[in-house]
TrEMBL record:
GO terms for biological process: methylation. Gene3D superfamilies: Vaccinia Virus protein VP39 (3.40.50.150). This is Uncharacterized methyltransferase At1g78140, chloroplastic. One of its GO terms (molecular function) is S-adenosylmethionine-dependent methyltransferase activity. InterPro entries: Methyltransf_11 (IPR013216), SAM-dependent_MTases_sf (IPR029063). Residues 186-286 form the Methyltransferase type domain. Pfam families: Methyltransf_11. PANTHER family: METHYLTRANSFERASE, OS08G0411200 PROTEIN. The gene is LOC115748973. One of its GO terms (cellular component) is plastoglobule. Keywords: Chloroplast, Methyltransferase, Plastid, Transferase, Transit peptide. It is found in: Plastid, Chloroplast, Plastoglobule.
Length: 353
C-alpha cells in the first residue's frame, strides 16, 4: 500500500502537502478539475484532506551540475552492455542515425543506423530468425496504429482514463524532474515521440533519447520532426530497443520518462530493473499508467482473471498505487511519489545517491 506520497519533489510539484495517502478524486469536469487540482489553488484531494498546489517552475532547479551525465558515451551493446563505438566522431542526433555504424568492442556485433533511427535491439541484423512480442507490444508496430496514435488514440486517454493531456502532463513531469534538469533524459517507449519532442524543444535537457520497440512509431516521430520548423534535431536521438534490454551503459542516464507504457511492457519488473540499472545515482524515473481498481473493486470475481488477461493481451493491469510502489522498491528505486486523477496515475522514484 502506498503510504508516504507527499514530500520531496512531489511537494515541490504540488506545494506543501497535508495529505499522506491521496485517493481517487471523483470530479465532474475532468479538465477544469484537473487544473484546480494540480495547477491551481487549494484543491480537494480526498474526503478529509487538502493539498496546497502551485505551478512548478521548471527552472527553479536544485540541479547538481557535477552529477549530470555527459551527452556522449551513453550507448552500449544490448548484448553485453559494453560501450558502442563508431567510426569517426558520432554525435547523437536525429540526423546522425542514417548511415552510421556502431560496433561493440567486446562481442564485436555491428549495429547499423537507418534513415530514421538506430536499431539497438539484440535481434538487429538477423537474417532468418524472427520473433514476436506479446500483443500489447506488437499492436504498436502496426503502421496504421502508429499513424493513428497521435491522431486521436492518445487524446482518448483523457476521456476514459483521466489523463490530463500532454501539456499538463509535461508540467507535472518537469516538477518531478527538477533535480535532474540540464542532464540527459530517456523517453522510454516514446511512441511517436509526443513527449520526446516536448523535452527536446523545452531546452531543459542536454540530450533526449526517444526509444521505442516499434519501428513505425519511431518513423512517425521522425516525420513529425521533419514537419516542424527549427526543431532542435541536435538534441534528440531516435533509438529502437526493447525496454527489457536497454542499450545504455549502467548509471549513464539522469532521467527516464515512460508515458502510458508501464502496462504495455511484457515484464514491468524486468523493465523497471533495467531503468534502475541505467539511471545514475540520484537519477529520477517518472511514469504514467492506468489504475484499473474500479472494475476490479466492483466485481471482485474479476481479480483471479487478471493473470489470464495479462497472459492473453500482454498488458499488465495495475490495481493500486501500492503495487507500483512495490514494483519500484523491489527494483532498487526509492522515494516513491504519485499524483492521481481517476484512472490516471503519475509516479516517480529515484535511484539512491
Ligand atoms: C501507449 S504507447 C505510449 C506512447 C507515449 N509514451 C505516450 O505517452 O503516449 C506504448 C508504447 O510502448 C511501446 N512498447 C511496448 N512494448 C515495448 C518494449 N518491449 N520495449 C519498448 N517499447 C515498448 C509501444 O511500441 C508503444 O509505442
Amino acid at each position: 500500500m502506498a503510504s508516504a506520497v507527499c514530500g520531496g519533489s512531489l511537494a515541490s510539484v504540488l506545494g506543501p502537502c497535508q495529505l499522506r495517502s491521496p485517493r481517487r478524486f471523483p470530479l465532474k469536469s475532468r479538465r477544469t478539475s484537473f487544473e484546480r487540482r494540480f495547477l491551481g489553488q487549494k484543491v480537494r484531494a480526498s474526503s478529509s484532506a487538502f493539498v496546497e498546489t502551485k505551478q512548478p517552475s521548471p527552472l527553479e532547479s536544485t540541479v547538481d551540475k557535477e552529477k549530470l551525465s555527459s551527452k556522449q558515451g551513453v550507448l552500449a551493446c544490448p548484448i553485453c552492455y559494453e560501450p558502442l563505438t563508431s567510426r569517426g566522431d558520432l554525435v547523437l542526433s536525429v540526423d546522425s542515425a542514417s548511415g552510421s555504424t556502431l560496433q561493440c568492442g567486446t562481442c564485436k556485433k555491428t549495429y547499423v543506423g537507418n534513415e530514421t533511427h538506430f536499431d539497438l535491439t539484440a535481434t538487429s541484423g538477423t537474417e532468418e530468425y524472427g520473433e514476436s512480442m506479446a500483443f500489447s507490444a506488437e499492436l504498436f508496430r502496426i503502421p496504421l496504429i502508429s499513424y493513428l496514435y497521435e491522431r486521436g488514440w492518445r487524446q482518448s486517454f483523457s476521456f476514459w482514463g483521466g489523463f490530463p493531456g500532454p501539456e499538463k502532463e509535461f508540467e507535472l513531469i518537469k516538477g518531478f524532474l527538477k533535480s535532474v534538469l540540464g542532464g540527459n533524459i530517456l523517453d522510454a517507449s516514446c511512441g511517436s515521440g509526443l513527449f520526446s519532442r516536448l523535452f527536446a524543444k523545452s531546452g531543459l535537457f542536454s540530450l533526449v533519447i526517444a526509444l521505442d520497440y516499434s519501428e513505425n512509431m519511431l518513423e512517425q516521430c521522425y516525420e513529425f520532426i521533419q514537419g516542424e520548423d527549427n526543431f532542435p534535431k541536435e538534441k534528440l536521438a531516435l533509438v529502437r530497443a526493447d525496454i527489457s534490454r536497454l542499450p545504455f551503459a549502467s548509471s549513464s542516464i539522469d532521467a527516464v520518462h515512460a508515458g502510458a507504457a508501464l502496462h504495455c511492457w511484457p515484464s514491468p519488473s524486468t523493465a523497471v530493473a533495467e531503468i534502475s540499472r541505467v539511471l545514475r545515482p540520484g537519477g529520477v524515473f517518472v511514469a504514467t499508467t492506468f489504475l484499473l481498481d474500479g472494475p476490479f473493486r466492483l466485481f471482485p470475481l474479476l481479480r483471479p482473471l487478471r493473470q489470464n488477461i495479462t497472459q492473453i493481451s500482454g498488458s499488465h493491469i495495475f490495481l493500486s498505487e501500492g503495487e507500483l510502489e512495490d514494483l519500484c522498491r523491489t527494483c532498487g528505486l526509492i522515494g516513491f511519489k504519485f499524483v492521481r486523477n481517476e484512472r490516471f496515475v503519475m509516479i516517480s522514484a529515484s535511484k539512491p545517491s
